[in-house]
Design goal:
The chain is mainly β. It has one domain: Immunoglobulin-like (Sandwich). It is 0% helix and 43% strand. It contains no helices and nine strands. Strand 7 and strand 8 form a beta hairpin. The two termini are 20 Å apart.
Length: 135
């Protein structure tokens, strides 16, 4: 199906519970930290279901996840032209304003029918909310 996916997590490192609701921000970057142009949509992908926005309460030291799915081949044009490789990701947790950064190797994020490479980002949820693939 030429579909790929990855899960990312947010960990509560505070001493009190925190609450998350909704979708995180997401930016793909090259190895030098430059932002790669990507079209980000909210929702599920072939590999990862979207649990939808709902309140997630995270006790201290617990984690919540979000999924990112993409096509690794432009099926419309039958090519891998215009695809990008990602080395880092910036994400802003829902209801927050500060980006978090991590190293992430996401290969061949491709456009559909040319244009800008596309990703689908799910809402933040506990592990049990993901039923197609699991973090």
């Amino acid at each position: 199906m030429q579909q790929a996916g990855a899960f990312f997590l947010f960990k509560n490192i505070s001493s009190s519970a925190c609450t998350l609701y909704g979708y995180p921000g997401f930016e793909a970057m090259d190895p030098f930290g430059a932002v790669e142009a990507t079209e980000v949509s909210r929702g599920g992908s072939y590999e990862i279901n979207d649990p939808g926005p709902h309140t997630v309460v995270l006790p201290p030291r617990q984690v919540a996840y979000f999924g990112v799915g993409w096509g690794d081949f432009d099926m419309v044009n039958g090519t891998s032209q215009g695809c990008i490789d990602v080395a880092r990701v910036a994400s802003v947790p829902p209801n927050q304003y500060t980006a978090l950064y991590t190293t992430a190797t996401l290969n061949s994020i491709c456009p559909e029918g040319g244009g800008t490479p596309k990703v689908e980002v799910t809402a933040v949820a506990l592990k049990s909310a993901f039923t197609i693939a699991s973090p």
